[in-house]
Amino acid sequence: MKSLILIPALLALTACTVPRAASVSQVDANSGIIRLTYGQAMLQNAKTDNYLAQSEANKACQQIGYATAFSYGQPITTCTTTSGSLCLNEHITLQYQCRGIANVPTSAAYY
């Protein structure tokens, strides 16, 4: 009887989506590539808010002189902790390409 209760409880827990905040992990000013990462533990379905990730990427691009960031490619999943053949923890990497020239205010020249 206990196993009948335990199975639906485990299935309910595996279906939970956990919100994660992606943070800037790598900035390459020469190529204009920004990478954001967030972690995901085993049996979690971690998601990040695309609006907040886009905002973080835009800020990072503007700090290196570009106007905005555009998401490209699929998220890259890398296993960071293993136990035998099981992956216990993963890092998900989102990639952004910086484009455009930032509007830098110029000071008026006085002669």
Q: What would your notes on this structure say?
A:
By secondary structure, the chain is of the alpha+beta class. Helix content is 24%, strand content 51%. It contains 2 helices and 6 strands. A hairpin with a 2-residue loop joins β5 and β6.
Strand order of the largest sheet: 2-3-6-5
- Beta-strand content: over 45%
Major sheet size, sense and barrel closure: 4 strands, antiparallel
pLDDT averaged over residues: 84
Which descriptor suits the 3D outline? elongated
Please provide the count of β strands: 6
Catalogue the unreliable spans: none
Query: In angstroms, what separates the terminal alpha carbons?
Result: 89 Å
Number of continuous helical runs: 2
Structural class: alpha+beta
Radius of gyration: 20 Å
Helix amount: 10-25%
Keywords:
single chain; 111 residues; alpha+beta; four-stranded antiparallel sheet; two-stranded parallel sheet; 6 strands; 51% strand; elongated
Give a summary of the structure in a few sentences.
With 111 residues, the protein is α+β, with helices and mostly antiparallel strands.
Topology overview:
Blueprint: H1 2-14, E1 17-20, E2 23-28, E3 33-41, E4 45-48, H2 50-63, E5 66-83, E6 86-101
Parallel strand pairs: 1-4
Antiparallel strand pairs: 2-3, 3-6, 5-6
